[in-house]
Amino acid sequence: MSSARRVRDGARPPIRLLRNLSSKIAAIPMVLVGLGVFVGGTLWTVLHSFTDSRLLPRLNWVGLDQYERLWSTRRWLVSIENLAVYGIVSLVLTMCLGFFLAALLDRKIRYEDTFRTIFLYPFALSFIVTGLVWQWILNPEFGIQAIIRGLGFQNFNFDPLYNPDLVIIGLLIAGLWQGTGLIMVIMLAGLRGIDEDIWKATRVDGIPIWKTYIIVIIPMMKPVFVTALVLVTSGIVKLYDLVVAMTAGGPGIASEVPAKYVYDTLFTRQNLGQGFAASTMMLVTVAIILIPWAYMQFREKRQ
């Protein structure tokens, strides 16, 4: 009996391995392309960040010189500062506004489908289109400032895209307008997944709605918040299109961001080594975000 069970148990792994064999064979080209393009390209980029490559890549090692030069460049430091300010404010406001809108829609309001479409529609637009639209809206000659001055308020000033101290605010307005809808939908899906009995129990106990959200609902939605956090953060690190469309990094370098610095260094100044070093630092930032998230996801599945 035990020998038969051992034979049967020993036969399970090969059988499991052969399950969906045709699907696994069909996925081999995609896996190979992924390994070759993404993993291979990443390793190639990191490798050449330690060289003095200029117009063409070459394996002339210079150690950490590119990184030392990178972190002593004012333009790179300004881009990191801008990304930090934009990222922190955008992350907080996107998560808060997304959850607030989702909580409102979860109350089964009238015309919910219409409101959901309105809030989600900006996400269907590319960042280039969003940037151009908000560049027109914030233009002082025919945008918000011109409209309000036309109403008689001649002292009204609102031209963030032309003010180095306020240009990040203009980028934030456009970024929030586009990205909040996606987070709202993710949060709404999480709220709709909560058992209705929980709401009934809190109402029976006389717990206010705001307290129910803070004490009960938000802790239960931890995986949803983590997923939204990863999506927003990875998008912030890759911020490029919106800046190019709205300000092109100006005024001066007031709205410079790391992704634009990498692009300009690689294709405008034709300094591959410096551009590879900057892109490697962006890769490290993304890895710092994704690795803990992947670990948490894997740990929760195992538990």
CA-based gyration radius: 25 Å
The first-level CATH class of the largest domain is given as Mainly Alpha
Number of strands: 0
Task: Give helix and strand order, one letter per element, not per position.
Answer: HHHHHHHHHHHHHH
Q: Major beta sheet, specifics?
A: none
Tally of helical runs: 14
Residues in helix, %: over 70%
Q: Which superfamily, in CATH terms, is the homologous superfamily of the largest domain? A: MetI-like
Q: Look at the structure and give the mean pLDDT.
A: 85
- The best one-word shape is flat
The residue ranges in which pLDDT falls below 50 over 5 or more consecutive positions are 1-11
State the distance separating the first and last CA atoms.
33 Å
| Percentage of residues in DSSP E strands | under 5%
CATH architectural grouping of the largest domain: Orthogonal Bundle
CATH topology of the largest domain: MetI-like fold
Q: Specify the structural class.
A: mainly alpha
Total domain units: 2
